[in-house]
User: Which sequence fits this backbone?
């Protein structure tokens, strides 16, 4: 991020939707400039980077970073959660959510992206074995 742009009084907030490995630098610049920031997943691509971002935000003294979660506040998902929480259907055994958009423009998203834009990209795993993990 360009220092003079992020520090401009005209910039009120920042949205980060770049390639995952670029997020740490952009988040730290946004925090240093005191700008609220919405960051798409992944927040960062390593545990060490996550700690650096958390420490920078804590040192700034207030929360500035928000992470995008897939449809977490979508009305239909909230209704489904209410049904599940109500217990009338019993304990869920499996959830399978799919993208609801009818189509994705060609080249915008490919099946390789989840493997190249996540924490897994910096690790060595047998094919198909990458799993998410808690950073806490």
Assistant:
């Amino acid at each position: 991020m360009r220092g003079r742009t992020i520090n401009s009084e005209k910039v009120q907030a920042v949205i980060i939707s770049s390639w995952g490995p670029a997020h740490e630098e952009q988040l730290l610049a946004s925090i240093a400039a005191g700008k609220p920031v919405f960051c798409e997943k992944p927040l960062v691509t390593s545990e060490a980077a996550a700690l650096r971002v958390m420490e920078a935000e804590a040192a700034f003294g207030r929360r500035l970073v928000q992470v995008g979660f897939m449809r977490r506040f979508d009305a239909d998902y909230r209704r489904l959660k209410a049904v599940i929480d109500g217990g009338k259907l019993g304990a869920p055994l499996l959830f399978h959510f799919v993208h609801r958009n009818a189509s994705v423009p060609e080249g915008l998203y490919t099946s390789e992206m989840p493997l190249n834009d996540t924490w897994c990209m910096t690790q060595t795993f047998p094919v198909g074995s990458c799993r998410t993990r808690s950073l806490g």
Notes: The beta strands are 14-16, 37-39, 65-67. Confidence is low (pLDDT under 50) at residues 113-136. Residues 47-60 form the longest helix (14 residues). The radius of gyration is 18 Å.
